Amino acid sequence: MKLYTRTGDKGMTSVIGGRLAKSDIRVKAYGTLDELNSFVGLTIAKLHEPKFDDIKNELIKIQHELFDCGGDLSAISKGYTFKAKEEIITFLEERIDVYIKEAPELERFILPGGTEASSYIHVCRTIARRGEREIVELQQSEEIHPVVLKYVNRLSDYFFAIARVVNSRSGLKDVEYERSAVVFRGGKRKENNNE
Fold first, then answer.
1. What superkingdom heads the lineage (predicted)?
2. Quick one: the chain helix, strand, coil %, rounded to 5?
3. What pTM was computed for the model?
4. What is the distance of C-alpha 2 from the center of its chain?
5. How far apart are CA 96 and CA 18, in angstroms?
6. Most buried among 20, 85, 86, 194, by the most CB within 10 A?
7. pLDDT at position 23
C-alpha cells in the first residue's frame, strides 16, 4: 500500500460522496476532530497508574466515537448511514454526573493545569470547543448529523470533569482563577451561564 496518492496536491481532498477543497469548513471540522483524537491518544499515554484505568478505557471508547463523528461529518453522499447514535451522548452525561460527585465541590472558574495528564485533558477540552464552533459554522450552511454537534458539546464538559478527577486522585487541588465570581452551585455551572 502506498501512503501518498498525490491526489491532494492541488488542494482538494476526498470525502464520502465527492471531493472538497482542503480549506472547506467541513474538512476543517472533521480535521479538528482528528486533531482532538490525537490529543486523546496522547492523554491515554500519560495515564499510567491503575487508579485511572476507568478513565483510560472511556477515552479509548471516545477515540472510536470521534472516528465515527469525523466520518459522519465527512459524508456528503445522500445514501450514507450515520454511525454516531444518541446513546454515546447519554453515556457521557452519565459519566459526567459520576465525576462531578467525585471531584471536590467547585464554586469558581479554575486554571487549566495540575498534573501532566490533567493538563492534556484541558487541551482536549479546548480543541473540542474549537471543533464545536466549526461544526456550528458548517451547520449554518449545510445539513449535518445532529448527534455529532451534541456529542462534541457534551464531550468538552466530560473533559472538564475528568481533568478535575485526575487532579483529585493525584492529590492535587485545582487552582481557582483569582478574579472569578461564584459561577458554580453544587459543582454545576449556574443556569444562566450554561453552554
1. Bacteria
2. 60, 10, 35
3. 0.91
4. 31
5. 38
6. 20
7. 87
